[in-house]
UniProtKB/TrEMBL annotation:
<feature type="transmembrane region" description="Helical">
    <location>
        <begin position="100"/>
        <end position="121"/>
    </location>
</feature>
<feature type="transmembrane region" description="Helical">
    <location>
        <begin position="34"/>
        <end position="53"/>
    </location>
</feature>
<dbReference type="GO" id="GO:0015385">
    <property type="term" value="F:sodium:proton antiporter activity"/>
</dbReference>
<feature type="transmembrane region" description="Helical">
    <location>
        <begin position="65"/>
        <end position="88"/>
    </location>
</feature>
<feature type="transmembrane region" description="Helical">
    <location>
        <begin position="167"/>
        <end position="185"/>
    </location>
</feature>
<dbReference type="GO" id="GO:0005886">
    <property type="term" value="C:plasma membrane"/>
</dbReference>
<dbReference type="Pfam" id="PF01699">
    <property type="entry name" value="Na_Ca_ex"/>
</dbReference>
<dbReference type="GO" id="GO:0015386">
    <property type="term" value="F:potassium:proton antiporter activity"/>
</dbReference>
<keyword id="KW-0812">Transmembrane</keyword>
<protein>
    <submittedName>
        <fullName>Ionic transporter y4hA</fullName>
    </submittedName>
</protein>
<feature type="transmembrane region" description="Helical">
    <location>
        <begin position="317"/>
        <end position="339"/>
    </location>
</feature>
<feature type="transmembrane region" description="Helical">
    <location>
        <begin position="288"/>
        <end position="311"/>
    </location>
</feature>
<feature type="transmembrane region" description="Helical">
    <location>
        <begin position="133"/>
        <end position="155"/>
    </location>
</feature>
<dbReference type="InterPro" id="IPR004837">
    <property type="entry name" value="NaCa_Exmemb"/>
</dbReference>
<keyword id="KW-0472">Membrane</keyword>
<feature type="domain" description="Sodium/calcium exchanger membrane region">
    <location>
        <begin position="39"/>
        <end position="187"/>
    </location>
</feature>
<feature type="domain" description="Sodium/calcium exchanger membrane region">
    <location>
        <begin position="221"/>
        <end position="362"/>
    </location>
</feature>
Length: 365
């Protein structure tokens, strides 16, 4: 009874319910500074609650399914934020999807990977993981990014960095196919490649953490996860004008809105990866980072392609020369990190420097 009571009164249970009430009270209204701040805090808290419940479900189903659940949950939030803000027709809405997806790729492949490697290597001297699984994930990320974010810059069917209708359809279908193939590889065909590496270098199928939650607890968390995701969509719609205004007031380029969205939705993912690294489960950290990058492109591009049918304005997906260089550097460095199957603090520092370079150029192009 005490356990049930503590679960019901937990902030992760109460917060999504409060967020629903706040959404009802603020929907369709112009908000002042104080309500905007409250909505922003509630939005961040609901994202954390959503990912907490995703982790509960993930713990119940085990690895590597757990990392997949968490990555998909985060990506659903990201897609919802992008679509709601594009639908509002704000400034630079035609490039919001590109800016957000690219920011997510840089944050996951450099920020989350770099931080995890630094934490793991600092504590254990050297981190170990499966190059087969991580390499396959990295190859998928590179292919998805190349097809969806680089090629539009060089196509000639449209005057700007955008796909024509048939090209966008191909990119959306290819993204879904690659994502489905990766999920099949991760969860069925080569599951061992995505499990933590033990001291003997072999995959560990056992869970070092506490016993998995009961089925009833996992089902309740699944319901709360869905409620939290829906609430995040609504609160993001309420908050989107304030985000764009804040970016303008800070003197930052409007494209930085995409970076803000990516940082918001990936903050809990970063914490989860860091915790895994502290427990010498670097493969889980890489699953989370590369899995989120794959889901970010593989699910966002098809969703945005579908939404573009009824949304006004063009959909510009092509990256500029600076970002293409950053993406190429990231792919090369990531290959050199992943191929040996082990890494030190140096690799973690290199990835974090790449992320810092991206953020500096995002603020001052």
């Amino acid at each position: 009874m005490a356990t049930v009571r503590s679960f019901v009164t937990s902030w992760t249970t109460v917060l999504p319910v409060i967020a629903v009430v706040l959404l009802v009270l603020t929907w369709g209204r112009e908000l002042g500074p104080v309500p905007v701040t409250i909505v922003a805090l509630m939005l961040a808290g609901t994202v954390l609650a959503a990912v907490h419940h995703a982790e509960v479900v993930a713990h119940r189903v085990g690895e590597p399914f757990g990392s997949l659940v968490l990555a998909v949950a985060v990506t659903v939030i990201e897609v919802a934020l992008i679509v709601t803000m594009m639908a509002s027709g704000g400034e630079k809405a035609d490039t919001l999807a590109r800016d957000t997806v690219f920011a997510a790729v840089m944050i996951t492949t450099n920020g989350i990977v770099g931080l995890s490697l630094l934490i793991g290597a600092r504590r254990y001297g050297e981190t170990r993981f499966h190059p087969e699984g991580s390499g396959a994930a990295l190859a998928t990320v590179a292919t998805l990014a190349g097809l969806s974010l680089v090629l539009p810059t060089f196509t000639t069917s449209r005057p700007g960095p955008e796909f024509s209708g048939p090209q966008l359809t191909f990119a959306a279908i290819a993204s879904l196919v690659l994502y489905a193939m990766f999920v099949l590889t991760q969860t069925v065909r080569h599951r061992d490649f995505f499990l933590p590496v033990g001291a003997d270098g072999q995959a560990q199928d056992e869970d070092r953490h506490a016993a998995p939650p009961a089925r009833r607890t996992a089902l309740v968390s699944l319901v709360l996860l869905l409620i939290a995701l829906v609430t995040v969509v609504g609160l993001a719609k309420v908050e989107s004008p304030a985000i764009e205004t804040g970016v303008r007031a800070a003197g930052l380029p409007q494209s930085f809105v995409g970076v803000v969205i990516a940082l918001l939705v990936l903050a809990p993912e970063t914490l989860a990866a860091a915790r895994a690294a502290r427990h010498d489960r670097m493969q889980i950290s890489l699953n989370l980072s590369y899995g989120s990058a794959i889901a970010s492109i593989g699910l966002t591009i098809p969703a945005i392609a579908l939404a573009s049918v009824w949304m006004p304005g063009p959909l510009q997906l092509g990256l500029g020369p600076t970002h293409i260089v950053l993406l190429a550097l990231t792919v090369v460095v990531s290959v050199l990190t992943v191929v040996p199957g082990r890494a030190t603090r140096l690799q973690g520092g290199v990835h974090l420097v790449l992320l810092a370079g991206f953020l500096v150029l995002a603020m001052n192009p």
